[in-house]
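Aim 2 progress update. The chain analyzed this quarter is reproduced below.
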Amino acid sequence: MAGGDWPPSLRYVARARSPSEFANHAFAACTDANRKQVSDELKGLIFAAFQDGSLHTKDWKRVQLASLAPGGRKRSADAMHAGSYADAMRGGAPRAPSAPGPPPGPPPPRPPPLRPPPPPAVVASAAPAAPTTPTTPRTKKKARKAPLEDPDRRAMRQRRFEAEQAAFEREQEQDMQTALATTSLAGRFGAAPVGAAPAADPNVIDWDEATVVGTSTKLEKPYLRLTSAPDPKTVRPLATLRQTLALLERKWEAERNYAYICDQFKSVRQDLTVQRIKNEFTVQVYETHARLALEMGDLGEYNQCQTQLRGLYAYGLRGHPAEFLAYRILYLLHTRNQREVSALMAELTPADRAEPAVAHALAVRAALRTGNYHAFFALYRDAPNHNAHILDQFLERERVQALLVLAKSVRPSCPLAFVAAELGWAGAEAAHAFLVELGAALYTADAPPAAAHWDTKRAVEPLARAAARFRKVDIKGQLA
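Predicted structure tokens:
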């Protein structure tokens, strides 16, 4: 920011190396003890002037800092000689006393002369003799020159003082610029005339300018990623979007074309976003789309909807937060994100835990933690809402793990019908097909699946290879 962008008496804020009279006398009158206090008060004055609109109209030469007022912090001798910076800026001399003193009287009597110091001999007798340097003509010459200061040392001290002063001014400039940047003052002052609107910061999105009110009456519209400002003629208002949602629900029930329905829902969500519509209808749109995505196994779209729903629920908008809280717990179990699961468990209230969907998700978590696969697959068969659709995402992984545990614990064989019943298959034929895919369909004798006995000893090796494939989890889940 150029120094000319400030009022003339405030240019020290922008250009500390060429300070104005205001800053010069303010900092000249302060000391190391109250320098921080002076700096803080200057910042406060500038912010207050900005807030009440008097930044460019205030006569800064008449401003008196409380931190430099008489009776404030004790100043150094140089600062006291300098006087108030306001007086110096007015060009006046140091203040005279406010009231005349008493009339001069006769001079007081001269005090008695001080007793002369004892001669060196007396001092030497009172204390032990200290080692002395031999007196030579050279030392006598140095002693004669001792009272005189070395010009080089005096110049070095002057340069050091100037460097310290320059460093302090740079520090003040950095502090002020940082403070101004945090309140967006730096991009708003400029050289605008008094009363003019401040210039907008180009790095900050003006949401009011980007917000539109749609006028389109088309119920169906393909989703296109925005590359420019939205056109109100192509954006559907809230009333039209309500009709669109009802139409999409009917089409889904009739046609089951997920690619088309997903595209239409993304278009509806975009129209809601550009119009900044956040109400219960917005919650309904995201909940409906999330349920359809779960039903089709599209975890990518589900994650986007779940993220938005968490923010909408935080606004207090009505919806089904308990249902989607259960989905979130199950999704974290799918991704094996134990840290997030633990954090979420700490946030649950007794009312949350009492919700049927949430209680089901917590029971699934407990079954997995304890390795109770019998309970896990029973919960899978009795899942509420769309909980089973999230369980489908890691059901194969848990079945392989359960088969491996079963193969290691039951020897030498196990009835396939028992395996099918325990691991949630509809029958022995479905269990046999799954084992064939894993290369673990090994039996003790040739028999139909319903009567076959699974050879658990030989099945351990192929099951271990299959379990290794599930060590990594695809947390994106986006459909191609």
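Residues 11-20, 73-104, 119-131, 182-197 have pLDDT under 50 and may be disordered. The longest strand covers residues 413-415. These observations will guide the mutagenesis experiments scheduled for the next reporting period.
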